[in-house]
Design a protein that fits this description.
The chain is mainly alpha-helical. It has four domains: 239 residues, no CATH class; 248 residues, no CATH class; 33 residues; 45 residues, no CATH class. Helix content is 72%, strand content 3%. Strands 1-2 form a two-stranded antiparallel ribbon. Strand 1 and strand 2 form a beta hairpin. The radius of gyration is 31 Å and the shape is globular. The N and C termini lie far apart (101 Å). The relative contact order is 0.07. About 1% of the residues have low confidence.
Length: 578
């Protein structure tokens, strides 16, 4: 029973620290207070290493949400991972993951952020390959190498910060935002954030990371790894306003949102559908952030974290009961067999769609109304609203396949709602999925936004959601994969369903030519020229030369006389020439 105590202690500690952070954030928010702590770790010959921590309402509120979700995920893991003999190791890895995120949240210094940033990358690799098989190893390598691109950009940003004499970026953002060096740093940080938050063209690792255990997916996709990039850009938001980087990020994040929404409508893997919905919501956060509304991005970041963790937890319970099957075509009628899990699943799904008065509604509706009010071009406007429609579309499709109709699996099944430890973890998040939107809107925006729009533009969000739901129902009845078996239609559906071929470009596309070149080098050099001028042939030549040398030096009188004659003839030749 030792592992139960580790899970329980972790849950209790994280939960109470989360409550403390939440109360502190309310206090800091009410008195508009920022606490800046510098801890001198070591000082040697006037050279000191200083760790800097920034405590303000934003960092404390985000920490409270991360710790709350982490505590419930660990509590949920107690039953979900109960069959694993290495559960202690699993819980330790999850705690390391959370600690890395904490370090990233409270650091206003690029060096200390790098510790948390790299900690997230390293521990995420260990968690993705936790179930050790070829698919997990491939997914882990794709995740690690995609994130290394951003890590390199982050290291370059640290190098550029040497221009200012300190790595505490928070001191320079406002005063130096028009300086070319700070714009370069902002661009590098944006690249790092794009890799961590899986924006185009680095999107392929996010669905691949589904090889990790479901509790890890719940943590990664809600409040830790993928939100690190968004949070970092929220801190760097001044660099995005009225700049080329903000415009570029708006285009890329809008396309990411659109691409993920379309891809989810062609997917049949339960966890991958939810992963693509995360990608879509990350695009939404990034796009509104690039327009300068950082508080809105932060608001949606928090509300999304709660219902996305709940979605993954419900998916984990369903997968457990479906005998580890993730194909939604084999599901059906789950609302009859698993009523409580299905209720949580549907509430989380409706919150994701923006159902009025659930958590997602307050943030998504405000974001879309602000976009309608802002000076934004038609293409970005279309991406925002069409992607929102796609969100409702794949959510309804998911509910249709899994909750409605008859079970498409074997007739002998053990579907039930008896996992009370998992259910308690889910019910904690269910409550937050309902109330967190209104609660946070009162806290973050103490004075309400006055958004005055024409009647039909005000209703556009609701209309788009309704149309998306209807389309989702229809494409569930007649799958687009089988509408027409002509080559063009199949290729189009394959293109849209595979994230615009990004997983293939990120793997085969990048590695194919270096491997071909490596094969040619191996054939030409290792098995070609090097056989003659290196390796075995070099050894044979040295042996032959040694033998000749041995003959010359074996005190043979005839050889000495012959060399003497040669030497004399050379001397005579030289004398004659001179």
């Amino acid at each position: 029973m030792k592992y139960l105590s580790i899970c329980s202690i972790s849950f209790i500690c994280l939960f109470f620290i989360s409550l403390t952070c939440f109360v502190l954030s309310l206090w800091f928010m009410s008195i508009d207070f920022i606490y800046f702590v510098e801890w001198e770790v070591v000082s040697l010959n006037s050279c000191s290493i200083v760790m800097t921590f920034l405590w303000d309402w934003m960092s404390l509120l985000f920490m409270s949400f991360v710790l709350f979700i982490s505590s419930l995920v660990i509590f949920y893991s107690k039953e979900y991972m109960s069959g694993d003999i290495n559960i202690n190791r699993f819980i330790m890895l999850v705690l390391m993951f959370v600690m890395s995120m904490m370090l990233l949240i409270i650091s206003p210094n690029l060096i200390s952020i790098l510790l948390g940033w790299d900690g997230l990358g390293l521990v995420s690799y260990c968690l993705v390959i936790y179930f050790q098989n070829v698919k997990s190893y491939n997914a882990g390598m794709l995740t690690a190498l995609s994130n290394r691109i951003g890590d390199v950009a982050f290291l370059l940003a640290i190098a550029w910060m040497l221009n200012y004499g300190s790595w505490n970026y928070i001191f320079y953002l406002e005063t130096m935002k028009n300086d070319i060096s700070m714009q370069i740093i902002g661009g590098l940080v944006m690249l790092a954030a794009m890799t961590k938050s899986a924006q185009i063209p680095f999107s392929s690792w996010l669905p691949a990371a589904m090889a990790a255990p479901t509790p890890v997916s719940a943590l990664v996709h809600s409040s830790t790894l993928v939100t690190a990039g968004v949070y970092l850009l929220i801190r760097f938001n001044m660099m995005l306003v009225d700049s080329w980087s903000g415009q570029f990020l708006l285009l890329v994040s809008g396309l990411t949102m659109f691409m993920a929404g379309i891809g989810a409508n062609f997917e049949f893997d339960l966890k991958k559908i939810i992963a693509l919905s995360t990608l879509s919501q990350l695009g939404l956060m990034m796009s509104i952030l690039s327009m300068g509304f950082y508080k809105l991005a932060f608001f949606h970041l928090l509300t999304h974290a709660v219902f996305k963790a709940l979605l993954f937890m419900c998916a984990g319970a369903v997968i457990h009961n479906m005998n580890n099957s993730q194909d939604i075509r084999l599901m059906g009628g789950l609302s009859i067999f698993m009523p409580l899990t299905s209720s949580c699943f549907n509430v989380a799904n409706l919150a994701l769609c923006g159902m009025p008065f659930l958590a997602g509604f307050y943030s998504k509706d405000m974001i879309l109304e602000i976009v309608s009010l802002s000076y934004v071009n038609m293409f970005s406007f279309f991406l925002y609203f069409f992607s929102t429609g796609l969100t409702v579309c794949y959510s309804f499709r998911l509910v249709y396949y899994s909750m409605v109709g008859d079970l498409n699996c074997g007739s002998l099944n053990m579907l039930n709602d008896e996992g009370w430890v998992m259910l308690r973890g889910m019910l904690g998040l269910l409550f937050m999925s309902i109330v967190s939107g209104s609660l946070l809107s009162w806290l973050i925006f103490p004075t309400p936004y006055m958004i005055c729009l024409p009647y039909y533009l005000k209703l556009l969000t609701l209309i788009v959601c309704l149309i998306g739901g209807v389309i989702g129902y229809f494409i569930s009845n007649v799958s687009l994969f089988y509408v027409n078996k002509s080559f063009n239609n199949y290729l189009l559906s394959y293109y849209l369903g595979s994230m615009w071929f990004m997983p293939y470009i990120s793997t085969y596309g990048l590695i194919n030519y270096p491997l071909l070149l490596g094969g040619l080098v191996y054939k030409s050099f290792d098995h070609g020229w090097s056989e003659f001028i290196g390796g075995q042939n070099l050894y044979n030549n040295l042996v032959n030369y040694s033998r000749i040398n041995n003959v010359l030096q074996s005190n043979s009188l005839s050889v000495y006389l012959m060399i003497f004659v040669l030497w004399i003839s050379i001397l005579f030749g030289v004398v004659i020439l001179l």
